[in-house]
């Protein structure tokens, strides 16, 4: 870590070796890990701010790739955020230096070891082959984490289910209100052939263009665009499977508002299905991102209710 010098790589201040435990001292990052920071501030950033975070992470990874380093554990939990929203790549516990071998520029682990399945490229899972291209795959997952405000990739699927789904070419759908251009970049990062994935330099260039042309970020991705249906089903909870409104709120990651709904008398799905944005504001759901998420789920609920209405003959 000490040899790195880049504004988007965590800076090593020193090490403590004369006492136990041995410690690494880094610069202080006020907002801690990116995943928890996003969950804490769900819906509070503009698209440009989110793209700026992604650009910083990509710039840090471009630097690492140019230094012939592979991170191998790139995930939002391993990105730290300072008070100015600058994102810095950290946690090099799994990173490896790549020898300049043009015949096979990969690191092949001879040990089993544990790898973060949800963030790891298929070839790295199957053959333990890690390259900058496998880091690009992981970066695509980080993009999805950022645009979903820290949702867990592949939700409650087991690791084996994730492996099977990816092998069958299923890919994560665009998060709510995700610009089409960003989801397309994610899909580019998740191309099966690692040689066809963009390089980090290309990713930085693409994000710079999007930032300069903010209008290109106004086109919102269709949730069904280019993604296989079995994964999409997990983003639209079936309200009939929930016993209470609280269960439904937990399922859409809005459990913090259970008391708000209960105290306002919205205790049945029939009542919830009639709620408007004004109702949400009145009961204390003030964050625009949270309102959008809840209203989107209510819209799905209405569609499901209409589909289950009895047909009169």
Automatic annotation (TrEMBL):
The keyword ATP-binding applies. PROSITE patterns: PROTEIN_KINASE_DOM, PROTEIN_KINASE_TYR, SAM_DOMAIN. It comes from the Eukaryota. Its main location: membrane. GO terms for cellular component: dendrite; plasma membrane. It is found in: Cell membrane. Residues 1-211 form the Protein kinase domain. InterPro entries: Ephrin_rcpt_TKs, Kinase-like_dom_sf, Prot_kinase_dom, SAM, SAM/pointed_sf, Ser-Thr/Tyr_kinase_cat_dom, Tyr_kinase_AS, Tyr_kinase_cat_dom. Keywords: ATP-binding, Cell membrane, Developmental protein, Membrane, Neurogenesis, Nucleotide-binding, Phosphoprotein, Receptor. One of its GO terms (biological process) is axon guidance. Residues 240-304 form the SAM domain. It is a single-pass type I membrane protein. The keyword ATP-binding applies. One of its GO terms (molecular function) is ATP binding. It holds the Pfam family PK_Tyr_Ser-Thr. Heterotetramer upon binding of the ligand. The heterotetramer is composed of an ephrin dimer and a receptor dimer. Oligomerization is probably required to induce biological responses. This is Ephrin type-B receptor 3. It comes from Thamnophis sirtalis.
């Amino acid at each position: 870590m000490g040899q790195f010098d880049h504004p988007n790589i965590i800076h090593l201040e020193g090490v403590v070796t004369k006492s136990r435990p041995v410690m690494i001292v880094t610069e202080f990052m006020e907002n801690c890990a990116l995943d928890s920071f996003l969950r804490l501030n769900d819906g509070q950033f503009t698209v440009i701010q989110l793209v700026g975070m992604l650009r910083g992470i990509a710039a840090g990874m471009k630097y690492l790739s140019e230094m012939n380093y592979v991170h191998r554990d790139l995930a939002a939990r391993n990105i730290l955020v300072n008070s100015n929203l600058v994102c810095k790549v950290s946690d090099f516990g799994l990173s490896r230096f790549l020898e300049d071998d043009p015949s096979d520029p990969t690191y092949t682990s001879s040990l089993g070891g544990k790898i973060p399945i949800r963030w790891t490229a298929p070839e790295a899972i199957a053959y333990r082959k890690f390259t900058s291209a496998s880091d690009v795959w992981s970066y695509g997952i980080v993009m999805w984490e950022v645009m979903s405000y820290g949702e867990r990739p592949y939700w409650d699927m087991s690791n084996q289910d994730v492996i099977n789904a990816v092998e069958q070419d299923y890919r994560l759908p665009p998060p709510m209100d995700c610009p089409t251009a960003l989801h397309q970049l994610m899909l580019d990062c998740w191309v099966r052939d690692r040689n066809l994935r963009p390089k980090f330099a290309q990713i930085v260039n693409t994000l710079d263009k999007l930032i300069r042309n903010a209008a290109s970020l106004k086109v919102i991705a269709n949730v069904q665009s280019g993604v296989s249906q079995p994964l999409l089903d997990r983003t639209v909870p079936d309200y009939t499977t929930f016993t209470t409104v609280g269960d439904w709120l937990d399922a859409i990651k809005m459990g913090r508002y259970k008391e708000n709904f209960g105290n306002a008398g919205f205790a049945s799905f029939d009542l919830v299905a009639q709620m408007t944005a004004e109702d949400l504001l009145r009961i204390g759901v003030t964050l625009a991102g949270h309102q959008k998420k809840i209203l989107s789920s209510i819209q799905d609920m209405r569609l499901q209710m209409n589909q289950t209405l009895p047909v009169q003959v």
